[in-house]
């Protein structure tokens, strides 16, 4: 297995795809997707374009759909949800489809949707992702961070490092054997430095500070937890994620 980490969708190779691609947006799209599926959502359908989301979801009755829209960290007017995983309770999402568009995370998922296997990862389901990789043993794996409007983000990189560090234990190999690019070594180092204070890292991250200004303290506390949910969102058709 060779693992490659790309800090943003824009940095992924344009002419090749991995055997397995993993999209990460710790704050907060993939954390929300994982939580929604754990709470009983029928599926999660992702969109980069808000108008397309509204058009596609129009075919679903209001009691079977939830429209989640976020831009700049805030809920889009007229949508049921913003992008908080804490909204995704069984009472609210059970049996319903979540139609979601966010500033960064849904773009990352659409960037890698052509891969044979596409997963959504966050800190809260890190071990579920690792177990899948250890079982399936894909030859090439891409982890793609969402970043923020094309820029590097600490929270996505530390999550990539958490996945890589756990893979190293499971495969009983060295980081040099696993790493397909330098970013893997950097992500593992970042995770090992901050693994005992992930909430502190999220508080120091640029987007973490942006969310704190929006009073999303509980979201950061939730998203900083590791291995909270044994749920693996996997792409069924392009843009449509279901619980494996």
Walk me through the structure.
The protein has eleven helices and ten strands. It is globular and about 50 Å long. A hairpin with a 2-residue loop joins strand 4 (65-71) and strand 5. It has helices spanning 29-38, 50-57, 90-93, 105-111, 126-136, 154-171, 175-178, 182-194, 198-204, 206-213, 217-223, and strands spanning 2-6, 20-24, 43-46, 65-71, 74-75, 97-101, 117-121, 140-145, 233-237, 240-243. The strands form two sheets. A six-stranded mixed beta sheet has the order 5-4-6-3-10-9. It has 244 residues and is an alpha/beta fold. The chain is 40% helix and 20% strand. The model has no long low-confidence stretch (mean pLDDT 96).
Q: Which helices and strands appear, and what pairs or packs with what?
A:
Blueprint: E1 2-6, E2 20-24, H1 29-38, E3 43-46, H2 50-57, E4 65-71, E5 74-75, H3 90-93, E6 97-101, H4 105-111, E7 117-121, H5 126-136, E8 140-145, H6 154-171, H7 175-178, H8 182-194, H9 198-204, H10 206-213, H11 217-223, E9 233-237, E10 240-243
Parallel strand pairs: 1-8, 2-7, 2-8, 3-6, 4-6
Antiparallel strand pairs: 3-10, 4-5, 9-10
Helix pairs in contact: 5-6, 6-8
Radius of gyration using CA atoms only: 17 Å
Terminal residue distance: 22 Å
- Write the H/E string, N to C: EEHEHEEHEHEHEHHHHHHEE
Secondary structural class: alpha/beta
User: How would you sum up the major sheet?
Assistant: 6 strands, mixed
List unreliable stretches of 5+ residues.
none
